[in-house]
Amino acid sequence: MHSAMLKFKKNKLRRISFCILGGIILLTGLLTGCGETSWTKRWQQSSDPYHGGSYPAAFSKWRREARIYQGLDLKLIAAVTVKSAQFRQAYVDEYARIYQLSEKDRDKLLQDQMAASEQYIDMVMAVYVPEKSWNDFAREKSMWQLYLSGQNGQRFMPLEIREIKKTGEELNHFYPYLTPWKSLYHVRFPADARSGTTVIKLTIAGVPGSAEMMWEDFL
To answer: Given phi > 0 = left and psi -120 to 50 = alpha, else beta, which region is 71?
Structure first.
């Protein structure tokens, strides 16, 4: 009799525990699932620094990433953004929004950006390499070679590769792939590289291997 009563009490306590646990799960689902309040959604959206602007789409469209492996060993990560005319337009809009530029200053910045777009093909390149000595892209006798080519296969060498040593919140805002382990470079090619083509391809080649990145609808 005593054993049956004890078993009954244990089963009752188990049912109560399940009910409490079920209530907690249901409440959690209402707070975090389909019952999510509109203010929570607004808070999540506002955490995006580009919310409401054209920059995120432009950045996504003109950004590429490539890696070089030797077996399982990672030898290079390169994240590259091409400053197309569309990208420069979105950049100016975002820059003017951040710094609350006057219409005159915004127009001057846009004019400068469009002029540069007509004369050059500019790229921002963030690179990680496992060996410090490999980070020599800006040197005249670098262990790496960079080429830009179009649909006709003609190759163009960079006019300039310049390391950007001073980084900060502004660059992190516009190029969020930057990390403390990556070095940042400005790479400039002649505008002739886009003549007669709507596709451009960047090749990074060296002893550790090679990587290619391609952009279509490039004007």
So the answer is: left
Domain boundaries, the chain: 2-45, 48-215
The predicted pLDDT at position 15 comes to: 53
Q: Quick check: 211 and 204 in contact, CB under 8 A?
A: yes
**Of 131, 143, 219, 146, nearest to 183 (Cα)?**
131
Euclidean distance between CA atoms 47 and 97, whole angstroms? 16
Q: Please list, in sequence order, all residues whose beta carbon lies within 8 angstroms of the beta carbon of residue 65, skipping any fewer than 6 positions away.
A: 77, 78, 79, 80, 177, 213
| pLDDT for position 49 | 59
d(CA 211, CA 128): 13
Reported as type and span, the H/E element at residue 189 is strand 183-190
Fold annotation for 48-215: Immunoglobulin-like (2.60.40)
Q: What is the DSSP string of 63-127?
A: EEEEEEEETTEEEEEEEEEE--HHHHHHHHHHHHHHHT--HHHHHHHHHHHHHHHHHEEEEEEEE
Q: What whole-number distance in Å separates Cα of residue 160 and Cα of residue 143?
A: 16
Per-residue pLDDT averaged across 122-128, rounded?
98
Distance in angstroms (rounded) separating the CA atoms of residues 91 and 112? 12
The residues facing 125 across adjacent strands are 80, 185
pLDDT digit string, tens, across residues 15-40: 544 444 444 433 334 333 333 344 33
The answer to whether 158 touches 188, Cβ cutoff 8 Å, is yes
Identify residue 209 by its one-letter amino acid code: G
Q: Report the predicted TM-score, pTM, of the whole model to 2 decimal places.
A: 0.76
CA 123 to chain centre: 13
